[in-house]
Predict the structure.
Amino acid sequence: MSNFFDLVIEETGDIVKSIYDHPFIRELSVGSLSQELFTYYIEQDTYYLVEFSRCLSIIASKCDSGDIKSFLSFAEEALGELEPIHNSFMNNKGNNINAISPANLFYTSYLKSVCSMEPVSIGIAAVLPCFFIYRDVGSFISTNRIHDNPYNQWIDAYANTYFSESVDKIIHISNQCALQESESNRQKMVTAAVRSSTLEFYFWDDAYHLRKFGNFK
C-alpha cells in the first residue's frame, strides 16, 4: 500500500512537470527572466508567506501533537529567513495588497479556509505542496542554472539542505497523519494537496503574465 505522500506525487506529477516547463521557471533558471516579472513574483510571494505563516499558526493552535507544533514553529522560522532575500529584490518597496494576483488571493483564501475549518491532517496536506514543490523546483533550477544567474540568491534559498530537511519533516508528518485518518479523510488530504499544487502552478503563471486581481484590461 502506498503511503500518503506517494499518492500525492502520483496525483500531482503532471502539475509539477507543467511547473518545470513553465516559461517563468525556464527563464529563471537561465537568468533571462525580466526583473519586472521577478519583482512582481517576489511581491506576491511576500504577501503569500505572511498568510501562509498564519495558516501554520492556525494548524498549531488546533494541534495536540508536540512534534507537529515543534515542526510548525521551525517552519515559520525557516520562512522568516526568506524576508531579507525578498527585500533585496523588492528594493524596500513594501508589499502592495491592491496588486494581489488572482491565484494568490485564491490560494491564500483556500489555505486559510482549510486550515481553519478542516481537521489538522487536511490542513497539513494543504500546506504540504508549498514545501515539496519549492524544493523540487529549487533543485531543478539549481541543476539547470547558469553560473552568473542574477537570481542565484533566491535559488540557493530553496536548494539548500536546511530547507530540504524541513520538507522531509512535513512529508513524514503528513504520512503519519494519514495513517490515523479514515479513508474518507485520507482522500480529502490528497484532494487538498492536489488543489494546492494546482494553485502553485497558477501562482507562477500569474506572475509571468503580471495578472492583478480586478484588472480587466
User: Anything to note?
Assistant: DSSP finds ten helices and no strands in the chain. The longest helix spans residues 35-62.
